[in-house]
Write a structure and sequence with these properties.
heterohexamer; A: 113 residues; alpha+beta; Alpha-Beta Plaits; four-stranded antiparallel β-sheet; B: 449 residues; mainly alpha; binds adenosine-5'-diphosphate
Chain lengths: 113, 449, 449, 449, 113, 113
């Protein structure tokens, strides 16, 4: 089992979500985060002065999935989330998930996904 | 019921209702200030705005009203003859007497005239406006205990004394009768008495208390610290604009004076052009309209028209508002970039700079159709453009006196208070937020679930 | 146009405008209650405050007004002679007649006098205040359907009957004429009629509906459940304080009675000392001022001064407010820690306890300068401190009658309703939040992006 | 002071105070609209509501007032004789003259009568209501620059011309005198002049600008886009209901006309049944009451009663409100599901549909007890139920004229403007939010810490 | 050392938290997230139309803990968070935590937990 | 590649952020969380009673970085985030990141960081 964490532009969430659904992925969790990276912070004007906002609003998606789904999901996310501008975000894959439990039924592992 | 007492009733009803509208402005100030500051200080800023009302009432009732109006004499529209408020402390210089403060009416003791009692309410809510202005400029770092003491200072002493000079029969109002400067300082509804006093006191306070942590970079460049709820600040601006229809038209103390119509219209027009000018200015300067500055622009127009509203034509009101709208933008910039003062809500610029512009604009645009006999001077109040230079000088002298007296006394007050007890919270408390540090609870508690 | 009808016009204008201000208090109540409850119930609490206004209007129009004022007789300041509202249902006991409720004016049928129609509006908005008070105490757990039925009960029956006894010519107002207790129960603007009725009904409701889940630990210790938006609650307090200038001064039903001036000033003073006292109390007790309790303190001062405002000196108003400010803090503590009732907004203490204090304080401080002929009794209204013990007893009897009648009838009403249909939502719905459970939508929907 | 001028003073005071209340409605509109739209557009929507006030004042002052009232003639309650506003542009058709617009009073030039100046203020705040209505319907996608130009169009041209026809002595008001249709179109306080004009203009605008992205699925099914702060929208509704007590009763232009009492009561009753009906409707349709629609229902009742308030009985007011409450629900559904127009706040239904219902209901329920001599026609205003069919037809003609003229001119205006400069922001800006795209700052900036 | 991530119903947080405390677990971190899974989104009514909300409010709990605590914690969470209805959520265990530092003291690993 | 997760005091975020920037770390993601640990909850007073708040506002920082950067980053964070009082927070390092994709370019792994 793998875990995918990705950070995308908030305005792309809807699209990514729909693309994943179409690809058969239903389980995922989304959260609101603030990111820094190559994308420069923007300058917020307010009254007569400015402030540089370094941490930009991003969306994090976490997915736990079977090993064989990883490539598909990577492709889907990259396609749906890309604008080509700096700040599109990144996807990280980790392979350390050793166990899953579905709370409702107590089922474990693949069955629980 | 005879016709005179019916007329007095109309006047009393008018003065009370407009006074209630002015009282409601307190809610407007609260919203503007809370909206333009940060979440972590929202309760503190809100409670300052509520408690200044309570504290101000006490200070003005016990001491302030007597100092300000103890010697004002008759209030003819309210059927009050000259016997009640008739003790002014005066000194004599150059063979002229200078009224400095009143000496009767403290705690309303001995006063049975309902006209005076209603007048007390009306004047009290005006004082309250002054008192609340500095809470915006000193927000997000003011120690609660220091603020409470300030509340008594401004309501019992600072405001009443300058107020006496202009409205209580004191020396500035006599500049005309004594020295031939027009009608003396004329300030119809308080551009100087209420707003400039508040703005200049805010300036002294901001200078003594220093800028919020993070407001200026090491090289002195100001950094924006956005307020947490701009729609709230704009709602507050609406409430203020609404209340101003009490402020200005009510200042006739008479509902039977038809002049109330043009006063209200001038108030309306200046508020519109003030907002419009600020919109154009920020659009041009920042590329997009700035909502907070538009709100400041509307308030600036209102502050500026407060003195001249009864004396100028609608077209002049438009012009006064336009200039106010630009002035507030430039002044906010000046305060931040040149004076390096930190004023989260723009109180110094809205009330101080435009309060001054208000009395000066009267000296320029007064059209000579109103004010016969005002301050004991025969003839109409007439400005520069209509040929009376001396009135213009009276206004300048009044503005100068306001600045020197209010800045001086306030600066000393804040400095001494700071030395004795410290007026600023610790840096830790400031970073943590004043709601956690000085209030029992934060503004927007949130179950995580 | 003759001089009398002009005077009547001023009175009608005054009564209507002050009535509009009272109507606006509904917004204040809504904000106080929503601000002091949790996010998940914000729409429900807000909509209760809006719909109680609508429901109350229907109930009072159809039934309540007739029951309350059907026998009130002439309304002299409005030019209404005694022929219109002249049917009171009375019983005779001990050889004296006791008025219990009115019997004309239902649905305003047959009424063409504009004075009466304006009076209807003014009285209606007062009823509305009473009706909305329990929505705060029962918030966060009240079943919508049960609330709607309650709305008709309070506006059509509960409020009007007690109101008739005091303001409609009923037996409490006749305690003076019949039994020599001063002027009978005197309640100028409704400390008992409006506030205590609301507060006591809230208490009965809170007792029947029970505490919110999590409000008390197993050992009975109360747990704080912070409201989600304190600045909103304070804004509501400002709106209420503003509307109170309609509530009290408007209750002269006359703009030509100069007494309106001191009524307004007393209202102002008590609100200030109420807030100030609550600030000091919480500062002392909790180590820091509690913004929500300061707001309650201001309201407590306002509630307390509502009965005596026309009859006392400004200094007495200050004292009444101070005591109200402390009383509300102690009472909130007592309700939570001793009575173990859950009242999220403090309605029982603000309106119930201080409503009682309001009528009692009149019996203590009335200074014998106003009220000649009131309730058919010659001479001025005079309190304990000025030598009239009998007036003080009239106030005590009135307070006792209010408590017994209102608590009794309300308790029965809520109990019976609870048995028939259940007045409380299920625990699941309560945990989920009433916005999801009983409204179509939540208060602050939020796109995640 | 003679008795006539005292009466005029009462009238002026009444007109000004009620005008101030109407002005305050601007805050209500702002809150309703901001509450019913999304966070990302909150500053933009709020600033539109503030700047439409400023822009509208300029447009109406410079051009609109003259076009609307330049030929209105005497204003008897204000002591203004017919000499001041006396130039109407008329054309002659079928041997009758049709007034189209006025030609004096531009920029108030040459006007010294305080009665006229007060009247200007009162009329201006009414215009402002119209002007602000479309900002709700076009919210969340309107280009700022296009909005500013619209502001001048509606205040200087669209509103004044239709207004002239009904209130300025123009042809619709003369339908009675010229063609025997009752008293001509009768619209007491503006169901058509103010609300229907605003609602129909909103409809044309919504049709031209198109729906928000995501509002309709590919198959045309509408998708809900919940507003971000429903309590805020309900607070706005309270403020509007409060201001309406200026709107309707103030439209007598006279505080000495006792009819103000029943006008206020009818306004109150219709607001209650409007809200109550909408509550029942959504409860029945959706299973639970919908807070936003209840608020719309209250406003619908208010809009509908605006025309007939002075002419109908309280029972008729109840009925008018009930129908309005249902009508607004059905109309919101119709606009979304059938017309496929996107109106985030329901402006078309609240103001357009119910504005029409308002003037028609007058034609049905007017009870023949008021309006003698109105629009130069002898006898009382009488509706269908009381036997006058011709008045009913006058109302229908007025409604039709309103729809055709306002929809036509507005549609052309928006279309042409769209072709020249584009009235809609880019899809990217719309998705990003108009606060980021068109304002300097967002509504609720939030330090992450 | 292991890391447990679990997604539960918001209204169950209080209960889970208390159960963990009783089981001797004190260190944990909670965040507000939005999840999609088998639980169908709900239909939000608003005015005269509807919108399907796909991302449901959930709570995420992150716990870092010693290997031997894993089974206990799984049991505690499953018991406390279960309602038996779809949407109860899942628990994921990963075993890749190689190092912990306590900021206050600089202590590392087991001592730092 | 490693992943660092740390939980710090909200008021330290600015400082930590700046220290990391100075140390050459630009990519990171921040989120608002609520934590429990050794730091006791605080008692919130409200009106006449109290409530104990167990979950304290904390900030979580996630960083994905090259193995050789780990020590440096740990040092930087510990220095910048420490106050010495209970509640300073913890840093967890995991080594299971097997793949990274930069959405904008499709670059993978080290190149994508
Ligand atoms: N090394 C990292 N660790 C954690 N989050 C990162 C890292 N690098 C990027 N991110 C997240 O990805 C977002 C986009 O990255 P950025 O470098 O700005 O753009 P791009 O990936 O297009 O080059 C950041 O705002 C941040 O949330
Ligand atoms: N594969 C997954 N990856 C990430 N989060 C998941 C995954 N599956 C479920 N979740 C989280 O768990 C929550 C509950 O899952 P769901 O499938 O709806 O119910 P159940 O676990 O009872 O079958 C989801 O809302 C989501 O936050
Ligand atoms: N075992 C853990 N699992 C998850 N988060 C933890 C764990 N231990 C601590 N934390 C997080 O670190 C924060 C600080 O930990 P705490 O024990 O209070 O202070 P200290 O680390 O100074 O001893 C907690 O609020 C929590 O967010």
């Amino acid at each position: 089992m793998k875990k995918i964490e990705c950070f995308i532009r908030p305005e792309k969430l809807e699209e990514v979500k729909m693309a994943l659904t179409r690809a058969g992925i239903v389980g995922l969790t989304v959260s609101e985060v603030f990111g820094a990276g190559r994308q420069k912070g923007f300058v917020e004007k307010y009254r007569v002065s400015e402030v540089t906002v370094n941490l930009l609003p991003k969306v994090k998606i976490e997915l736990f999935l079977k090993d064989q789904d990883v490539n598909k999901v990577l492709r889907v996310i990259v396609t749906a989330a890309r604008t080509g501008e700096v700040g599109d975000g990144k996807i990280f894959v980790s392979d350390a998930i050793e166990r899953v439990v579905r709370i409702r039924t107590g089922e474990e592992n693949e069955a629980a996904l | 019921m005879d016709i005179t007492s019916l007329g007095n009733s109309i006047n009393l009803v008018w003065m009370l209702i407009t006074g209630f509208l002015v009282m409601f402005m307190q809610a407007g100030f609260a919203l503007v200030e809370v909206g333009m500051t940060r979440i972590k200080n929202a309760n503190h800023t809100m409670l300052m705005n509520m408690m200044i009302y309570a504290i101000g009432i006490l200070g003005f009732f016990l001491l302030g009203f007597g100092l300000m109006f103890g010697g004002v004499g008759a209030l003819s529209t309210l059927g009050v003859d000259g016997a009640v408020l008739s003790r002014e402390f005066t000194i004599t210089l150059f063979g002229k007497s200078f009224g400095l403060f009143g000496l009767s009416g403290f705690a309303l003791s001995g006063i049975t005239s309902m006209g005076v009692i209603g007048f007390f309410l009306f004047q009290l809510v005006f004082m309250d406006t002054t008192a609340t202005i500095p809470t915006g400029a000193l927000a997000e770092r003011w120690k609660w205990k220091a603020f409470v003491i300030y509340g008594f200072f401004v309501s019992a002493i600072l405001y009443p004394i300058y107020g006496n000079w202009v409205w209580g029969g004191g020396w500035l109002s006599q500049l005309g009768a004594s020295f031939g400067f027009g009608h003396g300082l004329v300030d119809f509804a308080g551009s100087s008495v209420v707003h400039m006093v508040g703005g200049v006191c805010a300036m002294a306070g901001a200078a003594v208390i220093g800028a919020r942590i993070g407001k200026f970079k090491k090289d002195g460049t100001p950094v924006a610290i956005p307020g947490h709820n701009i729609p709230m600040a704009i709602l507050g601006t609406f409430i203020l604009a609404f209340g101003w229809f009490g402020f200005n038209p009510g200042s006739t103390l008479s509902g039977t004076d038809p002049r109330i119509a043009i006063i209200a219209v001038n108030t309306l027009l200046a508020s519109a052009t003030g907002a419009f000018a600020a919109m154009l200015y920020t659009w041009w300067q920042q590329g997009r309209p700035d909502p907070g500055m538009c709100a400041n622009g509307m308030l600036a127009g209102l502050v500026a028209i407060t003195a001249p509203c009864a004396f100028v034509t609608p077209l002049a009101a438009l012009v006064i508002g336009v200039i106010a709208g630009f002035l507030v933008c430039v002044s906010v910039w000046f305060v931040e970039w040149v004076l390096k003062l930190d004023d989260p809500v723009g109180a110094i610029s809205v009330h101080g700079a435009n309060g001054l512009w208000g009395i000066i604009s009267l000296g320029i645009f007064a059209d000579g159709t109103y004010g016969d006999g005002l301050n004991g001077v025969k003839g109409m109040v007439t400005g520069l453009l209509y040929g009376d230079v001396s009135q213009f000088f009276a206004q300048l002298i009044g503005g100068l006196a306001c600045f020197l007296f209010v800045f001086g006394l306030s600066f000393i007050f804040f400095k001494v208070q700071d030395m004795i007890m410290g007026i600023r919270v610790s840096p830790e408390d400031e970073v943590l937020g004043l709601d956690r540090a000085e209030m029992t609870s934060i503004a927007y508690p949130r179950d995580i679930m």
